[in-house]
């Protein structure tokens, strides 16, 4: 199943059509001592639960960026800017100071899986191991969310390589997402 595209080619086009503070909000929490950024580029009501998971992973240790849909309805259709077009300036400024980037996304699916993509193969494998060790099903390949485009927001940190976690909707429920956040956070704390 493919989702509709808003048609926006970049953040500037989206910002001309929608109003910050009315349609969307942006959160940037900087941790200057940390080389790691946690992103929720489709947060709030765009891909439900992703902002909460990103916040839980970041805690007070890692940089956090969240672009959140706050409209009463139609957030995905109006505000979803594809990851290879996501170029919001505050996000890019944050990523210019970070070596490691982990982007949290949501996707549809029937099996409760975490689908890992991105160009940081070492970090991707570490996160995969942590997620599986926590008792969740995860896939490194064989899915459509490969996130290998260098323009994908997860790959726009200083190293040009990051990780994208696509979480099936069942894994973004409040009673389950804590386990994912804890597993990912623990793996990141080990490498930081």
Could you outline the blueprint of secondary structure elements for this entry?
Blueprint lengths: L10 H7 L6 E6 L6 E9 L5 H9 L4 E7 L5 H5 L9 H7 L4 E8 L5 E5 L3 H13 L3 E3 L23 E6 L5 H18 L1
Helix pairs in contact: 2-6, 5-6
Helix content: 25-40%
Q: Strands of the largest sheet, in order across it? A: 1-3-2-4-7-5-6
Under the CATH scheme, which class? Answer: Alpha Beta
Distance between the termini: 37 Å
Structural class: alpha/beta
* Rg measurement, Å: 15 Å
Overall, the morphology is globular
Uncertain runs: none
CATH topology: Aminopeptidase
Please give the count of helices. Answer: 6
* Total separate domains: 1
- The arrangement of helices and strands along the chain is HEEHEHHEEHEEH
**Number of distinct beta strands:** 7
Q: How confident overall, as mean pLDDT?
A: 95
Largest sheet: 7 strands, mixed
For the record, the CATH architecture stands as 3-Layer(aba) Sandwich
CATH superfamily: Poly-gamma-glutamate hydrolase, zinc-binding motif
Explain what the structure shows.
- With 192 residues, the chain is an alpha/beta fold.
- It has a single domain (11-191), classed as Aminopeptidase (3-Layer(aba) Sandwich).
- The chain is 31% helix and 23% strand.
- It has 6 helices and 7 strands; from the N terminus they run H-E-E-H-E-H-H-E-E-H-E-E-H.
- Strands 1-3-2-4-7-5-6 form a 7-stranded mixed sheet, sandwiched between helices.
- Strand 5, helix 5 (121-133) and strand 6 form a beta-alpha-beta unit.
- Helix 2 runs parallel beside helix 6 (174-191).
